[in-house]
From TrEMBL:
<keyword id="KW-0732">Signal</keyword>
<dbReference type="InterPro" id="IPR044552">
    <property type="entry name" value="GLIP1-5/GLL25"/>
</dbReference>
<dbReference type="Pfam" id="PF00657">
    <property type="entry name" value="Lipase_GDSL"/>
</dbReference>
<dbReference type="GO" id="GO:0006629">
    <property type="term" value="P:lipid metabolic process"/>
</dbReference>
<comment type="similarity">
    <text>Belongs to the 'GDSL' lipolytic enzyme family.</text>
</comment>
<dbReference type="GO" id="GO:0016298">
    <property type="term" value="F:lipase activity"/>
</dbReference>
<feature type="signal peptide">
    <location>
        <begin position="1"/>
        <end position="25"/>
    </location>
</feature>
<dbReference type="InterPro" id="IPR001087">
    <property type="entry name" value="GDSL"/>
</dbReference>
<dbReference type="InterPro" id="IPR036514">
    <property type="entry name" value="SGNH_hydro_sf"/>
</dbReference>
<dbReference type="InterPro" id="IPR035669">
    <property type="entry name" value="SGNH_plant_lipase-like"/>
</dbReference>
<dbReference type="InterPro" id="IPR008265">
    <property type="entry name" value="Lipase_GDSL_AS"/>
</dbReference>
<protein>
    <submittedName>
        <fullName>GDSL esterase/lipase 1-like</fullName>
    </submittedName>
</protein>
Length: 365
């Protein structure tokens, strides 16, 4: 009896599902946004995994300016993908793991703070890039069931895919000393990171993705966090990290050019985050900031200790009065104001900042 009832329920559910999906049709020029990567993009996926507060930002004062409550974003307000969604005429794109989130027609956010392209990077505490891509494949299947093969293919081919990855792979190499990965040379290590990113791109392309946006690495060696963690109170930039960031950015643009020649229809926008962030660190007032080298929230020199919110190892922290006067909100993450400026450069920046296309050009294709 019980099994019969389940059966009937299933049929009813299925009938409703079919009738809904058959009358559902997307606007001709609908552009979805699929988001992959690390804390620069994570809108709250890490709220729903078994991790530690080191990889979470779901407590005050994160979120204080825009949302007025902590969402899991590592900033006082919105992140780069939130602004990109706005420019694309989309609502905020929710985290994939947010319960009840099962409409993927506008895209979805797979990013996870702490994630890297290498499986070993903060393994067990984050959703690595490979796993993010496997979630995307699940979403692709659901979209095909819901919309049919032709409509799903169209949606995936028109969609934007934005990826921020690598900072954590290098951060781990510089600040931790136990991993087997330490035995690789700098060049070999960069090749592994780029190699894994290339695999991810090819898999998304195989499922129909065509228009990609990438963030190069920022000035990793000069963030308040890296300076304090490695140089202590002298606060000088960390050359090892700077070198890795340059090597990565060079290897990334070479890899993307190769992919453009090899993958049918593949087009990309690659933002030079190293330049956009360095410019603002070195000339804060030119961009409307008062402080470029020190975090708004944290403790120690440059407030570079990752103690914002007082929930991690160190319980004491300072919080600035106006986050919008700062480039960095915490030891390694931009304020909402900085994110808005950088998002503008990704969306409509000239080729010296975002090349060969900007994201708006890809959106309009
Ligand atoms: C979560 O992680 C902790 C520490 O790594 C572990 O002890 C615990 O069993 C995990 N919980 C679940 C539900 O996996
Ligand atoms: C990526 O790199 C790791 C090493 O960290 C490796 O084990 C893994 O198989 C690679 N490939 C993908 C697709 O992640
Ligand atoms: C890592 O360990 C090696 C030897 O065990 C040591 O020489 C090196 O300075 C350490 N590096 C860091 C970043 O702690
Ligand atoms: C990039 O080019 C624009 C316009 O051509 C210019 O205003 C801007 O200063 C340049 N930025 C950098 C960092 O060179």
């Amino acid at each position: 009896m019980a099994s019969l009832r389940i059966h009937i329920c299933f049929l009813l559910y299925f009938a409703i599902f079919l009738s809904l999906s058959s009358c559902y049709s997307l606007p001709e020029n609908h552009v979805a946004l699929f988001i992959f990567g690390d804390s620069l993009f994570d809108a709250g996926n890490n709220n729903y995994i078994n991790t530690t507060v080191n990889y979470q930002a779901n407590f005050w004062p994160y979120g204080e300016t825009f949302f007025k409550y902590p969402t899991g974003r590592f900033s006082d307000g919105r992140l780069l993908p939130d602004f990109i969604a706005e420019y694309a005429g989309l609502p905020l794109i929710p985290p994939y793991l947010q319960p009840g989130n099962n409409n993927f027609v506008d895209g979805v956010n797979f990013a996870s703070a702490g994630a890297g392209a290498l499986v070993e990077t903060y393994q067990g505490f984050v959703i690595n890039l490979n796993t993010q891509v496997s979630y995307f494949k699940d979403v692709e299947k659901l979209l095909r069931q819901e919309l049919g093969d032709a409509e799903a293919k169209r949606l995936l081919g028109r969609a934007l895919y934005i990826i921020s990855i690598g900072s954590n792979d290098y951060g781990v190499r510089i600040t931790q000393n136990s991993s087997v990965l330490q035995s690789y040379s700098k060049e070999e290590y960069v090749a592994m990171v780029i190699g894994n990113l290339t695999v991810a791109i090819k898999e998304i392309h195989m499922k129909g993705g065509r228009k990609f946006g990438f963030l190069g690495l920022g000035p990793l060696g000069c963030t308040p966090g890296m300076k304090v963690l490695v140089s202590g109170s002298t606060g000088s930039c960390v050359d090892k990290a700077t070198t890795l960031a340059h090597l990565h950015n060079k290897a990334l643009s070479i890899a993307l050019q190769k992919l453009e020649n090899r993958l049918e229809g593949f087009k990309f926008a690659n933002h030079d985050l190293y330049t956009s962030v360095s410019e603002r660190m070195n000339n804060p007032s030119k961009y409307g900031f008062k402080v470029g080298n020190m975090a708004c929230c944290g403790s120690g020199p440059y407030r570079g200790q990752s103690s914002c919110g007082g929930k991690r190892q160190i319980k004491e922290y300072q919080l600035c009065e106006k986050a919008s006067e700062y480039l960095f909100f915490d030891s390694g993450h931009p304020t909402e104001r900085a994110n808005r400026q950088i998002a503008e450069l990704i969306w409509r920046g000239t080729p010296n900042m975002t090349r060969p296309y900007n994201l708006k050009a890809l959106f309009n294709l």
